[in-house]
Write a structure and sequence with these properties.
By secondary structure, the chain is mainly alpha-helical. 76% of the residues lie in helices and 0% in strands. The chain has eight helices and no strands.
């Protein structure tokens, strides 16, 4: 099997059966959370299905495990960055030091940027980041496909980042 754009569902099913356990184990060892590891395993095979594998560069298992490691590290970095941003804008920070006008200004900028998001985007981000609900649970609660929740969340975060960058907050 060389690099190509499409893989048949039967082929993908066989690959999943052969390699999903190894991918999941690596994902779990890196992320330490069952739901995150399951989500990552799913995402690895979706990425694989889109193409990019070249049999001349190594085995499918090696490629899948390398892809898993890379995607897991990306997720860990994203989670770290999100936590850092949320800590920075945590309610009460301005109350601890009421003279900190910069923190108050940044908080206002964040609230303004959040208000520019659609109600659905605000709802999904609030459920995920304020309430700590997993994207899988959000999808079930809102009766949306998991991919849709992930897409809405990703786009909302990009909009939020762009709004904060344009306001020179981050």
């Amino acid at each position: 099997m060389t690099s190509r754009n499409e893989i048949s569902p039967d082929e993908l099913g066989r690959l999943y059966d052969d390699h999903a356990t190894a991918v999941y184990r690596l994902a779990f060892s890196l992320l330490s959370q069952q739901q995150e590891a399951e989500d990552l395993t799913h995402d690895v095979f979706l990425r694989f299905q889109r193409g990019g594998f070249n049999s001349e560069r190594g085995s499918i298992r090696h490629y899948l495990l390398l892809l898993t490691r890379s995607m897991a590290l990306n997720r860990l970095n994203q989670h770290h960055n999100r936590r850092r941003i949320l800590e920075f804008f945590r309610p009460g920070d301005g109350q601890q030091n009421p003279i900190d006008l910069q923190a108050m200004d940044e908080r206002c900028s964040l609230e303004s940027a959040l208000s520019e998001l659609s109600p659905r985007e605000q709802q999904i981000l609030a459920m995920n980041y304020r309430e700590g609900i997993s994207q899988n649970t959000i999808a079930t609660t809102l009766q949306l496909p998991l991919g849709t929740v992930k897409t809405i969340s990703r786009r909302a975060l990009l909009k939020l980042r762009n709004a904060l960058v344009s306001r020179k907050v981050i």
